[in-house]
Structure formats: structure tokens, C-alpha cells
Design brief:
The protein has helices at residues 11-15, 19-32, 39-52, 63-76, 94-102, 124-127, 147-157, 217-226, 248-257, 261-278, 308-320, 353-361, 373-385; strands at residues 56-60, 85-89, 106-110, 132-138, 160-164, 172-177, 180-185, 192-196, 210-214, 231-233, 236-237, 301-304, 362-365. The protein has 13 helices and 13 strands. The two termini are 23 Å apart. The chain is an alpha/beta fold.
Length: 388
């Protein structure tokens, strides 16, 4: 077949199906005359909380703020104290770690399982100390972590459980319960969860946006106050808060896109299945498809090469074939300059070999709901023909 271009991501194409609805939503907000914490914000908070199966949603400015504010709220409520340790995956995006350290908590990095890329639950026990007070789970690349095992472990240790759901919009799991199997979505397992609606997400805004989800009314109230200058009542400040509010425009846009999230995720699963079933190159390690396919929403499709040099050759090869790639993430958090010199804060180079190896060998290939069957075939053929 003739070579066609396959960009890693094309946000204009992704938003094209909703163009008329998005333009009308913008006009509705402009016509309303109310632009911060109004009716669109309230409607989206309610709609997304209902979708995820939780009682409360608090819209905030972005995903990092969502992470930071949910942890800080627990400190304000006296459930966490500065200096407490929080278990965090070692191969996550740095935002997860930044949120923990920003509020005076101590991140303790736990290596991932090499098949799922998520936190290795077998390592939780050895990672705990007398100072451990919580686990901040990341559903990396769109795949749910092993929440049954994590929640059981947390319960046995009386630990708080938080979820970083920035890549897992709509991922769901069937959990054991007294009434049989119960479907639960990302963000409904722990004490609180943080979402990002950055434009590249499976449910993306057209700017920055985030949300904290929880079943805890008291926690939701504190998050809402902290995000509004620490105020529940105008000019009355209960906390030293910040300004982090989901604006009406982004809420209105997200309301238009939310009803399509399940179909978006299903198309991504179809593409992932083609990749896994049709790519047969022994130089490439493919990700797993979970036994329950809905546990994965394939925010990105991440593969591994055998070495950093092989990855470099792979990137150049695909570039010449007109296929885009991106690396999530080339430098793990503990090796970032931001944490250099902070003795005792994060491990030194060499102490987290799995995260370091992944950072040198992982790479993501095109994955989004607007890829055509022809583009998917182009990617499959290119990967099968790669050699180095």
C-alpha cells in the first residue's frame, strides 16, 4: 500500500466530530454572562462524578492542582501530617511526585510490574515504614492498577488510598462484593482521586482543567475551599488557599464530549487489539491486553525496545516512514534535576533499575480514536519490517 502519514496525535482531528457542539457550548457560556464556578461547572462536576460512580466532584484548574489539593485537604483535616510517607510508582510522570512533596509529604517510590507498567503490589510491604500513611496509585498509560490487591493491602495497614487517574478516563473493573460482581471506574476505589482533562487526554478539554473525586463530603468541601483562596464565603478565608477553579468554558466543552467517552475508549481498544494481534516483530515487546479489556482505555500504546540505541534507531526509522512517536517518560522522577541534591528525598541513580530501564527503552506509537484502519495497517507493517 502507498505510504501515508500517521501523526502521533492530531487534536484538530480529534475535536472535529464535536465542532458544532463545542462552538455552541462556547456561545452559551458567553451568553450566560457567568464565567467562573457557574452552572456549567456544577453540571459537569455532577455528570463526571456520576459517570465515575462517586458522590462528589470538585473542578479545579488542572491535574497537578487536583493531586496537590486532595493531599493538602487530608492534611487540613488532620488525616495526614507533613513528613508522612506516601507510596508512589517509580515510573510515573513527575507531577505525581511533585504533588506529594509540594504539600510536605515524603514520596517513597515503588517499582512497577514489567508487564502492566503499574505499581508492583508485591513490593508494597517492603516499601512501607512506620511513617507510611498512604498510597498514591497511578493508572499508567490508561490501564487500571491492581486495585483489589492495593485496597486490601491498604486496609490491612490502615493506609489512605489515592488515585492519579490522569490517563484512565473511563477505565473500569469488576470487583468482588457481597452482592456479586460490582463495576467500578477509575477514581472510585480510594479515599480521593485526581483527574486531568488536558487536551490530549481521552476526555480532553481545550485548555487546562482538572477535578478531584471523592465519596467524602468533608474532603470535597475542604478541596473546594482551598481552590478558592481558602474561602467558603467571599472575603472570609479559612485556609491559606490558592486560585484553582475549573472555568465555565472548559466545563461546557467537557459536557459536550463526556457522552462520547465510552465509544472513544472502545475504538482505542479495537486499535490496541489490532496492534497486539498483528505485530509480530521479536525486537518489540508489546503491552498486555487485560483479561477484562475494559480495564484499559489505551491513553497511549507503549512498547519496549531491547536497548536505548535500538529505540533511537526505531524513532528515526518510523520518522522516515511518516509515523509519529513519543516517549513517556525519558527521565524517571528520581533522576530529574528538580530533585537533585535533596539527600534522602528520592533514591539515587541505579537504585530503581526497573524504572530506569523502562525510561531508556519505552516508546509510544500512534493511538487515538480517529486513526483510520489504513493508518493502523501502515503502523503495523512498519513495525513488522523494523530491524536494527
Amino acid at each position: 500500500m502507498a505510504q501515508i502519514s500517521v501523526p502521533f496525535l492530531d487534536l484538530k482531528q480529534i475535536n472535529a466530530p464535536y465542532q458544532a457542539a463545542l462552538k455552541q457550548a462556547c456561545a452559551d457560556v458567553v451568553d450566560s454572562g457567568w464565567y467562573i464556578r457557574g452552572s456549567f461547572d456544577e453540571r459537569f462536576e455532577r455528570a463526571f462524578a456520576d459517570y465515575c460512580g462517586v458522590a462528589h466532584g470538585v473542578g479545579v484548574g488542572n491535574g497537578l492542582d487536583a493531586l496537590t489539593l486532595m493531599l493538602r485537604a487530608e492534611i487540613e483535616l488532620g488525616r495526614l501530617r507533613k513528613g508522612d510517607e506516601i507510596l508512589v510508582p517509580s515510573n510515573t510522570y513527575i507531577a505525581t511526585v511533585l504533588a506529594v512533596s509540594a504539600v510536605g509529604l515524603v514520596p517513597v517510590l515503588v517499582e512497577p510490574d514489567e508487564k502492566s507498567y503499574n505499581m508492583d503490589t508485591a513490593r508494597l510491604n517492603s516499601a512501607c515504614s512506620s511513617k507510611t500513611r498512604g498510597i498514591l496509585v497511578v493508572h499508567l498509560y490508561g490501564r487500571l492498577a491492581d486495585m483489589n490487591a492495593i485496597c486490601q493491602f491498604a486496609k490491612s495497614r490502615n493506609l489512605l488510598v489515592f488515585e492519579d487517574c490522569a490517563q484512565a478516563h473511563g477505565a473500569e473493573l469488576e470487583c468482588d462484593s457481597a452482592c456479586g460482581k460490582q463495576r467500578m471506574r477509575a477514581g472510585s476505589f480510594g479515599d480521593a482521586a485526581a483527574y486531568s482533562f488536558y487536551p490530549t487526554k481521552n476526555l480532553g478539554a481545550l485548555g487546562d482543567a482538572g477535578m478531584v473525586l471523592t465519596n467524602d463530603a468533608e474532603l470535597a468541601d475542604v478541596v473546594r475551599a482551598l481552590a478558592n483562596y481558602g474561602s467558603r464565603k467571599k472575603y472570609v478565608n479559612d485556609y491559606k488557599g490558592v486560585n484553582s477553579r475549573l472555568d465555565e468554558m472548559q466545563a461546557a466543552l467537557l459536557l459536550q464530549k463526556l457522552p462520547h467517552l465510552d465509544s472513544v475508549n472502545e475504538r482505542r481498544r479495537q486499535i490496541a487489539a489490532r496492534y497486539v494481534n498483528e505485530i509480530h516483530n521479536p525486537l518489540i515487546t508489546l503491552p498486555e491486553i487485560p483479561v477484562n479489556p475494559k480495564e484499559h482505555v489505551w491513553h497511549v500504546f507503549t512498547i519496549r525496545l531491547q536497548s536505548e540505541s535500538a529505540r533511537d534507531a526505531f524513532v528515526k526509522y518510523l520518522e522516515n516512514r511518516g509515523i509519529g512517536t513519543l516517549i513517556f517518560y525519558p527521565i524517571p522522577p528520581h533522576l530529574q534535576k528538580a530533585y537533585a541534591g535533596e539527600v534522602g528525598t528520592l533514591p539515587a541513580a541505579g537504585e530503581l533499575p526497573i524504572a530506569e530501564s523502562m525510561a531508556k527503552t519505552v516508546i509510544s506509537i500512534p493511538m487515538n480514536q480517529v486513526l483510520t484502519d489504513e493508518q493502523v495497517t501502515q503502523v503495523v507493517e512498519a513495525l513488522n519490517e523494523f530491524s536494527c
